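Structure ticket #2291
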Amino acid sequence: MNWLPFFSYVFLTTFTPGANNIMAMSNAAKNGFHKGLRFCFGVLLGFFIVMFFCALSCSALLDFFPGFDRFMSYIGAVYIIWLAWSLFRPGSSSRKRKGTTFLSAVFLQFINVKVIMYGITAMSVFLLPYYGKFYELVFWGLALSFVGFLSTCCWALFGAVFEKVFNRYHKLLNVIMALLLIYTALSQLFAR
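Resolution: structure written out below.
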């Protein structure tokens, strides 16, 4: 396996802005890092389930449902735009709100096109040609999930560290984060 492209792909994909990272940052800025970790742990569990599913079925999925990736792009884009609206809508600027829950973070992974495409690409391009045993797939699913978890934790920490800035400029920052989520959704739709 060519390790440099693989590691570059993994880190660039997980650490760039996306629904997980932006929501983790937003939650930690509003509620603190420790409460924001609920979301990060939900991402970890959902991420692993999606990675494992991709490992077991990515080639069959595209063979049986050629339009599945496009369908998921639409579903995921709608959900991500809804997340953007939830940051932008009136009343979203309240300082302390209930953070995004563990279960909503798990659910987000199943319609997060970035995560699904990340899993399909990582597995089919980089890993499945070299690793096919069950325990290898479990290992790589865990490894890819852990990198995603580290990414959301970093973004959550960033949100918590700059909490005062977020408090002072919450309306402007909510608009910026909402626009980044919209960009994420649109880039998934038009990147094909």
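Closing remark: The CA atoms of residues 55 and 123 lie 6 Å apart.
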